[in-house]
UniProtKB/TrEMBL annotation:
Cellular component GO terms, alphabetical: membrane
Annotated source species: Eilatimonas milleporae
Region (Disordered): 31-56
Protein name (record): Putative lipid-binding transport protein (Tim44 family)
Gene3D superfamilies given in the database record: 3.10.450.240
Length: 227
C-alpha cells in the first residue's frame, strides 16, 4: 500500500499519529510528508499567531523564498531546476512527483487538525516555531469559546514556487489553491463569521524542509503564508 493511501485511511479512522508512526520502519527515504521525528529543521516567523477570516494561521514564515510571487513550472524556471538538481545531489532518492502528492495530502490534514484544535497531530507535522504559532492560535480561539466548522472541498492545485538547499536542509515551497467553506461559532453555538452555503477559493504558500544528512526521511512544515 502506498504511504499516501495509509495516510488517507488513517485520517478516516482517526488514528493519524499512531498509524504513521507505525509505518516509519517501512519507508524508503523519499516519502514527502510523514510525521517529523526531529525538531531541528529551520523555524518559521515568530509572529503573533494571527489567523485569517478562514481560520488559517497567517504570516508564519522565514526568509526562504526568492521567487514566490508567481506560480512557476519547474521545467520552465532555471532557478528551480538548479535547486532541484542540488536537492537530488544531496538526496538521490528524492522524487518530486511523490513530494507534491504528499504535500497535497498533508495540506488538508494539517488544516483540519488546526481547525479541530488537535495539537498532537500538529506537533507531528510542524517545526517547533510553526507549531508554537498554530498552538497559540488554537488556545486563543479556545479562550474566546469559539469553534470552527471549516471544510475543505477540494485542493485544486499544488505547485512548487521556490526551492533551495540551505546547508544540508532541503526546502520546497508549495502554492496550494483550495476551495473551502468556513464558519466560526461562539460559545452559544451561534455563527459569528462565515457561511456553510458559499465556498471560497484560497491560496496558501507553505514551505517544507528536510535534513538530507539525516536518516530521518520526514519533511516538516517550517513556514506558511497566504498568497
Amino acid at each position: 500500500m502506498e504511504i499516501f493511501d495509509i495516510i488517507l485511511l488513517a485520517m478516516i479512522a482517526g488514528f493519524i499519529f499512531l498509524r504513521l508512526r507505525a509505518e516509519l520502519g517501512n519507508r524508503t527515504g523519499n516519502e514527502p510528508l510523514p510525521p517529523a521525528a526531529g525538531r531541528g529543521a529551520p523555524g518559521g516567523h515568530t509572529g503573533d499567531g494571527a489567523v485569517d477570516s478562514y481560520g488559517r494561521p497567517v504570516d508564519m514564515r522565514d526568509e526562504v523564498s526568492a521567487s514566490d510571487d508567481t506560480v512557476v513550472d519547474l521545467e520552465e524556471d532555471p532557478a528551480l531546476r538548479r535547486a532541484y538538481a542540488d536537492i537530488r545531489r544531496a538526496d538521490p532518492d528524492f522524487d518530486l512527483a511523490r513530494f507534491i502528492e504528499g504535500a497535497r495530502s498533508a495540506y488538508p490534514m494539517i488544516l483540519e487538525a488546526f481547525w479541530q484544535g488537535d495539537k498532537d497531530t500538529l506537533r507531528t507535522f510542524l517545526s517547533d516555531d510553526v507549531y508554537g504559532q498554530f498552538a497559540g492560535a488554537v488556545e486563543a480561539r479556545e479562550e474566546r469559546g469559539e469553534t470552527l466548522e471549516n471544510k475543505i472541498l477540494d485542493v485544486s492545485d499544488a505547485q512548487i514556487t521556490a526551492a533551495r538547499m540551505a546547508g544540508d536542509t532541503a526546502e520546497l515551497t508549495v502554492r496550494f489553491t483550495a476551495e473551502l467553506v468556513a464558519v466560526t461559532r461562539n460559545s452559544d453555538g451561534d455563527i459569528v463569521d462565515g457561511t456553510l452555503s458559499d465556498a471560497v477559493t484560497v491560496h496558501d504558500k507553505w514551505t517544507f524542509a528536510r535534513d538530507t544528512a539525516s536518516r530521518d526521511p520526514n519533511w516538516i512544515l517550517v513556514a506558511t503564508r497566504a498568497g
